[in-house]
Every structure is written in C-alpha cells, then in structure tokens.
Sequence to fold (155 residues):
Amino acid sequence: MNGKALELGSDDMNAMVSYMSWLSQDMPFGVSPEGRGFVKIDKTLEPNTDNGKKLFAEKCSVCHGANGEGQYKDDGDYIYPAVAGDKSFNDGAGMARTYTAAAFIKGKMPFGQGNTLTDQEAVDIAQYFTHLPRPVKANKDKDWPNGDAPKDVRR
Fold:
C-alpha cells in the first residue's frame, strides 16, 4: 500500500508476470496450492498485548528485530521484512488488523514452523506488533465511511 504501481509492459512488470507464470507452471487451473491463503483463527479470542510482547521477543525478534524493524542487506533489500516502523506496511493494510495478522502468523510463522502456535498465541503476537508505530495510511478516515469497521481495524 506504500509502493508504486509498475508500468504495464515495463521490464519489471514483465519479470513479475514471468515469475508468477513460472510459480504456477505445473498447477492445474482452479486448484489452490497447499499452503496458500490464511488459516482460520478464532476471532472471539481477546488479545493479551503483554503476552504478545513476550512471545514476539521469544519467537519473532530473531528474524523481525527486537522492535519489528526487520533485517536488511547492505544494498537495502530485506532479509526479513519489517513488521513495524517506517519500513513496515501502513496502518490501513490488512496485516495491520489483529485477526488478519494472527491468521497469517498461525499458519506461516515462525518461519518454517507454521501451525505450531495456538490461536491465542497468534492473536497475542498480532495484537502486540500491529499496534507498534508504522506509517499512517493517507485518507484512512474514508475507509469505513458508515462506521462499520471491524473491531480489529487500527484507529
């Protein structure tokens, strides 16, 4: 949401399309590959930010940094992406929502160890890092004009 669209027909766009075609080369049309998407998460769970901070330090900080700042190569490319701070996604992104982030965390994290956290642990971690400082989405006040924002949307 903080990026810039690639120009249609540009070398970068053609590279992305080629890569996506390569990724799906042996997949039958209409079949979702194993591991795609998010797992279901219990959205009735109440997040515990203090537990999330403790779990983030134990399970996430080795890759994402003590403050969620990520890890970067000397050329600026990331090794592990920022989940907080100036280089992270903005506060209007889907991943800035507690239960959306928790569903991703539950199924995919820690890296290579997906589905090892409980729903509660994933919700707690998500609640902690999604409320750390991050870029603010422009015109976010227009996202839910009828006041019907889900309960986990950043305000």
